[in-house]
Amino acid sequence: MPKRLLIPAAAAGLPAVAVAVYLGALTVRIHRQAGIDEARPADVIVVLGAAAYRGRPSPVFRARLDHAYELYRKGLAPRLLTTGGSGGDPDFTESETGRDYLIGRGVPSEAIILEPRGDSTVYSTTAAAEILRRMGLRSAIVVSDGYHIYRSKTLLEARGIAAYGSPRPVPAEVRDDWRYWRLCFRQAVGLLLWRVGIRR
């Protein structure tokens, strides 16, 4: 009797093992993407939002915006698109904060597109892709933190946008830190959930 029970128990463990192997491989892929800059001529530069404080970008968000600005200044795209909703702020959205910061650096307001409602990566990339589709724009340089690039690219590509990742610069030792690997793993989990139909 105990021997007969071992087979179902082992079989029940197989899906968990398969998921663990999948997440491990995906985490490695995400980490590799984090160190690659694919910037090339495109229709638009999409800047993924991050925390903002009453109209001021956080250091992380500012670093993303500065990197996007440099790509714009080099002429790699004629437009920028900033994403992100209010995050609980009654007066400012992340996308508006990003726009205002870029204008302060000399980018014409007419060159900036807003996606002002996104409260998650899935929402922001889905909405951004729809905006780009309506405008006839088909390619984008995606600017975010490195660990966020692979997932953001995948979501945009699923909506028909040719996406090229360009992470904000961080030292190599930061990417090798275990905390950075943990962030990559969280992105892998988020991507897996999206693939099974959980859209957050």
| Helical residue percent band | 40-55%
N-to-C CA distance = 44 Å
The largest sheet is: 5 strands, parallel
N to C succession of SSEs:
HEEEHEHEHEHEHH
Oligomeric state of the chains present here: single chain
Approximate strand percentage: 5-15%
Neighbour order of strands in the largest sheet: 5-4-1-6-7
Q: How many beta-strand runs?
A: 7
CATH homology superfamily name of one domain: HUPs
> How does the overall form come out from the CA principal axes?
globular
pLDDT < 50 runs, ≥5 residues: 1-7
Output the structural class.
alpha/beta
* Overall average pLDDT: 91
Describe this entry's structure for a reader:
By secondary structure, this protein is an alpha/beta fold. The chain has a domain at 37-171: Rossmann fold (3-Layer(aba) Sandwich). It is 55% helix and 12% strand. The protein has helices at residues 2-34, 59-73, 94-104, 121-135, 146-158, 172-175, 178-195; strands spanning 44-47, 52-53, 56-57, 80-83, 112-115, 139-143, 162-165. The strands form 2 sheets. It has a 5-stranded parallel sheet with strand order 5-4-1-6-7, with helices on both faces. It has a two-stranded antiparallel ribbon with strand order 2-3.
